[in-house]
User: What shape does this take?
Amino acid sequence: MRLIELGPSHSPIVAKADGWQTTIIDHATQQDLQAKYVGMGVATPERIEPVDFVWQGGPLTALLPPAMHGTFDGLIASHVGEHFPDLIAFFKDASALIKPDGTMALALPDKRVCFDFFQPLTTTGDLLDAHVRGRTRHQRRIFFNQAAYFTLRDAEGGWLHTGSTAPFRLANSLFDAQRAYDSASEDPDLPYQDSHAWAFTPKSFELLMLELNLLGHIDWAIRSIEPTAGVEFLVWLERKRLTIPEAEINAARLALLTAVVYEGEDAIAQLDEAEALPVAAESWRRSKPAIAVIIPLYNGARFIEEALDSVFKQSLRATEIIVVDDGSTDDGAGVAIVERLAKTHRLTLLHKPNGGQSSARNLGVQHAHSPLVAFLDQDDVWYPNHLQELAKPFQTASGRPPGWVYSNLDEISEDGALVCRNFLNTLPAVHPQSSVQDCIRQDMFVLPSAALISRAAFEAVGGFDEELCGYEDDDLFLKMFRAGYDNIYLDIPLSKWRIHTNSTSYTARMRRSRAIYARRLIHLFPDEPKRGRFFVRDLIVPRFVEHAVHEYKEAVTLADPAAIEEAWTELQFLATYDQALLPLCFGHTLVRYRNALIGGDNATIVSAWTVLARTVAQMPKGHLRLRATVNVLRNPRVSKKLFALRHLVRPMMRWAFSG
Assistant: This one.
């Protein structure tokens, strides 16, 4: 494999010494480079390899003999592309030097984490102008801008996306920049003066390549882009003419332009965490509400990137983003995604043994510093204005600030397709919550993913109850309501709620949490006949009866002994407050027994009879006729005959229940 490496200097990527068949192009000879880097304190000048061609400007195709054109399999350039006075010419030269099926790998500085921090992004128009003018030397304005806006942190011209609180400092004075401009020349006959000519972020570079390719100026297209922890991003290019219907081009461009704007949040985050800013910038920074976003993660590889991406795209940027891995068992798949995103976004990843999302959320709050907290489930998604809209009532509250602000939401399917707009409007729940009755007569449907919460209120009531994994949200907001905290409801969808069979709503933990929460409510709000208040009879038990019956029938259908036992326990408990509950299950168990007689084996029949007998045994004592009637069905042969004669079974059942 024949390769070109541009500008490897003292750190070659495909070194000849390692066996690569590499043609090296650099701006000086091996001896000159060694002398230069020894003077700069580089510890390994011996890694500088013999330079095959010394480039001092002009086309690369003029530097390499025609016999070498079209013979290379690939080209590698690390921190070189930003230096070319005519970047389009470089791509055209690469097309001439590399085989049609060849590739190119570039490492380019990310302006958000290097001395180009305050430089404007390069546009396609900038590149076109340089190419039309055939530039082989940099414009004088380039040298002014390079000197005027050259930025350092901790005396370094490059840094990581996260973890630094070092202040920003301009390296040169304004008058130094003027002198750089005055001494610069664009004369192609004078020696080449080097500088960064172009400034990129990953998405801005992707936009440039798209537009140049579609306009026919280059035949290189991006195969992939990979961000790194700092200083640079990596790009792999392939020879390819893009074909996008003209009607779809602007949509593609707008998506990238939007992404470029959101990339700027990374730079803003760095400014926010810098130890010192000018007074004017400090006052601007402090005018924004500080919000901590907390996301529990458990085996969430399928959805976590989409959830985090919706956080990164908020019009009001979060001050903190904390992901809590709750003992995932997916071999680190979800954690790996978070760790990758943490290279280019300011987020913290915490780890804990599995304890449920209540404990994960509480741990996140313990590590947060912001006065407002926004929770997001790993499979939910925020619209871009989510935080901005929810924060407004906190900023404009004239009296006591609210305990929480929440909004309507849209329901989406497992694959992200829209199911229902304004989902809360389809439910009987009252919004906002204005009485205890509102909070306990049905599920409150204040979803943590759709709420912004006062941290002071959250901590005052003890946060989420870690015994619960399901109904912990109702429990929290009920506690906050009873503690006197106000709530404000925005009847606009600001988030997307994804419900699917693997979500918490369908787990055994949810069923057990529901049972715990029902008992808690009954304890907190007993009936008060003297005051005419029947919270248990009229509100709490009816709320949980439907769930209990459904779960019992489902357990019977699945013939799951453990689930049946668990469901029976709940039915028995609720039946102490509602004597009409257990007979609701009788018909279901009777039909199941009949079906087992018709098509089941002996074990299935025995199992179905056991469930039926248990159902009747748990009936209130007054159902003596029913027990006697069911006893008749104990013999399978008798039962089969009776079920075959439906005109006899139905009167028997009516007689049985009349007793």
